[in-house]
Design a protein that fits this description.
Elements (H helix, E strand, L loop, with lengths): L1 E5 L3 H10 L5 E5 L3 H10 L1 E5 L4 E3 L2 E3 L2 H4 L4 E4 L6 H7 L9 E4 L6 H9 L4 E6 L2 E6 L2 E6 L3 E4 L7 H12 L4 E3 L3 H22 L10 H20 L9 H11 L6 H7 L10 H11 L4 H15 L12
Parallel strand pairs: 1-2, 1-6, 2-5, 3-10, 6-7, 7-8, 11-12
Antiparallel strand pairs: 3-4, 8-11, 9-10
Helix pairs in contact: 4-5, 7-8, 7-9, 7-10, 7-12, 8-9, 8-11, 11-12
The structure holds pantoate (PAF).
Length: 314
């Protein structure tokens, strides 16, 4: 089976590295030729909780060289989903399956529109990784990867995929209600990501300060109101307790959005708190705290080159 991982970010590298332990043919598709070449030569270097190791992975920016894929795993940022699949279209054959492991809402729909909904498998992972440099990551946390189709069907390829993940040490299971899982992850991301990006705090600190904890609770409460109105059943009973528990369990993590801000990159705010704001407007439910976080993160993104570095430059 040929598996192509699209996007050499933290998650893309983590999955490519672990999947390279399988018997399958693994490729990493990178849009940058030089970085693909570097990864090809040095492999993917991993440190952190899975010890220090190096995975040999074939990487390329040349789709012709990679050829047709049986499975494509999309690991790019949500705002790049459309472009990434359009760019990878030559890898598709009639029965290619596409798995998204991205944060936020809307990716499954974008991929479905481009390639047909029946090919798309949605996924949510609790693995944690930080990109240290090109092809170099820290495996920051272990967690389950849950996959499923929006229509609840479980095709044979999905069982096969679960088996491969489990064999290489990426704990995986299948869910018939992936929508509720995507929303359950979204609620966690709405509470943690933007707030950590704005305050530049690691996940655990957000619940240690009474002020950030209060904001986190307000943001999550608003998002849960939207989920309820949309009749989404979350996989946990107490969302506030769950988000706080995740902050604690991932205390040392630099959230993916904070990683983006520290690297002065575009964030996934539009697909996380931004999705809550859009749905709030549609449904007539006020979500002022989510709206405020969106505006602040957008200000941070727009002002990367303007912020003062020290008091002298004032
Ligand atoms: O986006 C992230 O960083 C992660 O989904 C989470 C769960 C917030 C942990 O850092």
């Amino acid at each position: 089976m040929k598996i192509v991982i699209v996007g050499p970010g933290a998650m893309g590298c983590l999955f490519a590295a672990f999947l390279s332990l399988s018997k399958e043919e693994i490729w990493l598709l990178d849009k940058t030729k030089d970085r693909a070449e570097l990864i090809n030569q040095q492999g993917i270097i991993i440190e952190g909780i899975s010890e220090n190791w190096q995975a040999k992975v074939k990487a390329s920016a040349d789709k012709i060289k990679i050829g047709k894929a049986d499975l494509i795993i999309i690991c790019v940022k949500s705002f790049d989903t459309k472009e990434a699949l359009e760019n990878a279209k030559t890898l598709l054959k009639e029965n290619t399956t596409i798995l998204t492991l991205q944060n936020g809402l809307g990716n499954v729909e974008i991929l479905g529109e481009l390639a047909g909904q029946e090919r798309v498998i949605a996924g949510s992972t609790n693995e944690g990784a930080t990109l240290l440099a090109a092809g170099r990551i820290r495996h920051a946390g272990r967690g389950q990867t849950i996959i499923g189709r929006m229509d609840g069907k479980i095709p044979v390829e999905m069982r096969f995929l679960r088996e491969i993940f489990n064999k290489v040490g990426l704990e995986a299971r299948i869910s018939r209600d992936i929508k509720s899982l995507l929303w359950s992850k979204l609620i966690i991301n709405t509470g943690i990501n933007a707030l950590s990006a704005i305050t530049r705090l690691k996940n655990g600190k957000l619940i240690e300060f009474e002020w950030t904890r209060r904001i986190l609770r307000e943001v999550v409460t608003e998002a849960v109101k939207i989920a309820k109105r949309k009749r989404i059943k979350l996989i946990y009973d107490d969302p506030l307790a769950k988000v706080e528990a995740v902050s604690e369990a991932t205390a040392g993590n630099i959230s993916s959005m904070l990683q983006d801000v520290l690297r002065k990159k575009r964030t996934e705010i539009d697909f996380i708190n931004g999705a809550i704001v859009r749905l709030g407007q549609e449904l007539g439910i006020p979500v002022p705290n989510n709206s405020l976080l969106v505006d602040l993160v957008k200000t941070i993104e727009a002002s990367y080159s303007l912020t003062v570095a020290s008091m002298e430059s004032c």
